[in-house]
Design goal:
Number of strands: 21
CATH topology of the largest domain: Rossmann fold
Distance between the termini: 86 Å
CATH superfamily of the largest domain: P-loop containing nucleotide triphosphate hydrolases
Shape: elongated
Number of helices: 18
Largest sheet: 8 strands, mixed
Radius of gyration: 30 Å
Structural class: alpha/beta
Length: 550
């Protein structure tokens, strides 16, 4: 064997050792083999060294892959943190070591799609020597490669770029690797994602990364993020706050004094004066709310500005630290409420014998979709209990409300009478609950026969009760101890048509219950305080007993 052959074997061995190391370590592959262009284009191509955001993502994805054998992640980010570059590099790395891989990258507009495609080509062509893959074909938006890492030399990996411009974008593809960019800004997000998700391979080793800055509390990205945070889907939520980006700082003027809000940021997140000063300048450019959407410090901040949130998000966020999810459960056989970690009832204050109470209740079918909900409030607008369950049928819901109402001093009970509410009200009447809210029929105001059981929400009454609730929250006249209720209030939006409802993929059942409760309390304040004794006199066989709640 001559020297040339020996050198060839040594080179081949060296290549294989390098490839073996790169296959398990994206960080070293990126730094040693991926070349990128910085914002300063005069510098040219430089090694891809991860910033703080990219390190955080890598650690999270590596851990998920170790535990599950796959990557499924959703990334909520601030602007210009290098996430698109990171994902482009990761897709290339994964494709490079995955024979027969089918990689799909989809961006929200053609300019971004073109930029990602150009970046992908540069990643391929700027590798070193014998590690450069063979680029077989390349059309307007597709690259096919044969990688030196493929044991099967005939294996071909494909790399396809799409723009999310039509509902049919990407339909029919069966990707093993996918990077879906700026989903919150896709025009046809629901239809496109439905088509893509249907075709994504579930095999071990596959990767799907969704990423976007926020674009309001609506749309598929918001729905998927909320589901990921709640553990209701397979995606790992990764949030990247603005302050971990090293570039987001400006030299602060000497002697700069901090405002109260800025002092809290320093205390909560360890920010320095240069970061605070950069933040000030950005807020001066576009306003605070826009800053919070594009450069959030928390995931909740990111979704504040949709132009559609009905309730004061900052006020609701201020209530979160004091909120507590307590758990009790109703036993329909013993007619008692017991502490239970899986329970649906949160009790914040046991009934006081001399206190009048109001209950607002919403009714669902009980088939695992919308929720039956109830909010119990005293005459000081203090929420003392919250119930929420999507597996209780309307009749059983009536029975539970009967005992809940009697426990809270035979509370004045207002049940939404729309749709399934009729069955719940019939059950309450059948059981003899005496203190039910009745609504006057507008066509026959003066006649007692014009009264009907329940609270009916209509296009006329709904804006009134929501407006009343908004005023209570804005004026800090109501305390909200329930995390579930706070979340629903934050997800409650005004649509382009002027309607108010839960954001897509969210719920508003406790919101409606609270709004009914607050409205009834507002309109029946005097009656509540004067009729409490008479209510008790009507039902002599029931007295609240705190031992029921053990």
């Amino acid at each position: 064997m001559d020297n040339k052959e020996i050198m060839s074997l040594l080179n081949e061995k060296e290549k294989r050792n390098k490839l073996k190391g790169y296959e398990k370590d994206f960080s070293s592959f990126a730094q040693e083999q991926i070349k990128i262009i910085t914002k300063d284009t005069s510098v040219g191509f430089i090694p891809f060294e991860f910033n703080e955001c990219q390190i955080k993502i890598t650690e999270a994805l590596d851990e998920q892959f170790k535990n599950t054998g796959r990557v499924r992640a959703i990334i909520l980010k601030a602007r210009q943190q290098g996430i698109s570059t990171y994902c482009a590099g990761r897709v290339f790395w994964k494709s490079y070591f995955s024979p027969h891989s089918r990689s799909v990258v989809m961006a929200h507009d053609s300019a971004t799609s073109d930029a990602l495609f150009s970046m992908s080509k540069n990643l391929i062509r700027n590798m070193e020597g014998n590690l450069v893959p063979n680029e077989i074909t390349s059309n307007a938006k597709e690259i096919k490669i044969q990688s030196p890492a493929y044991k099967d030399k005939d294996a071909v990996g494909s790399y396809r770029l799409y723009t999310a411009g039509s509902p049919e974008a990407g339909r029919g593809t069966t990707p093993t690797i996918a990077h879906l960019s700026e989903i919150a800004f896709w025009t046809h997000d629901e239809k496109i994602l439905a088509g893509l998700f249907q075709g994504i391979s579930q095999a071990e080793g596959t990767e799907v990364i969704l990423e976007s800055t926020a674009n309001g509390a609506q749309g598929e990205f918001y729905r998927l993020w909320k589901g990921a945070v709640a553990g209701e889907n397979e995606y790992l939520p990764i949030f990247l706050p603005w302050y971990i980006t090293p570039e987001y700082r400006r030299t602060a003027p000497e002697g700069m004094e901090l405002m109260k809000e800025e002092e809290e940021l320093v205390e909560n997140y360890g920010l320095d004066y240069d970061q605070i000063y950069w933040r000030r300048l950005k807020i001066a450019e576009g306003g605070k709310l826009k800053f919070q959407q594009e450069y959030p410090a928390t995931a909740d901040e990111a979704f504040i500005v949709s132009g559609s949130n009905v309730f004061n998000i900052e006020r609701l966020n201020s209530l979160i630290p004091m909120a507590e999810q307590r758990r009790s459960e109703w036993d329909p056989y013993s007619k008692m409420f017991d502490e239970n970690k899986e329970g649906n009832l949160s009790i914040y204050e046991y009934p006081k014998w001399e206190e009048p109470y109001v209950i607002g209740a919403d009714v669902s079918l009980g088939v695992g979709q919308d929720y039956s909900a109830a909010v119990v409030m005293n005459n000081s607008y203090e929420i003392v209990a919250v119930y929420r369950n999507n597996r209780i049928d309307p009749s059983m819901w009536g029975e539970l409300l009967f005992y809940l109402g009697r426990y809270y001093n035979n509370a004045f009970l207002a049940v939404e009478s729309n749709s399934m509410g009729i069955a719940t009200l019939q059950k309450l009447e059948q059981m003899g609950y005496l203190n039910l809210y009745k609504q006057t029929k507008m066509a026959n105001v003066s006649n007692e026969e014009g009264m009907r059981l329940g609270f009916r929400t209509t296009s006329a009454s709904k804006p009134v009760i929501i407006g009343n609730l908004k005023n209570l929250i804005d004026n800090e006249d109501i305390m909200i101890p329930s995390p579930i209720l706070i979340r629903e209030l934050k997800d409650y939006i005004s649509t382009a048509s002027g309607k108010t409802e839960a954001a897509p993929g969210c719920y508003d059942d406790t919101v409606i219950s609270l709004a009914i409760c607050a409205e009834v309390l507002r309109t029946h304040w005097d009656k509540l305080n004067t009729r409490n004794v008479s209510w008790r006199e009507k039902i002599l066989d029931f007295e609240p007993d705190e031992t029921m709640w053990i």
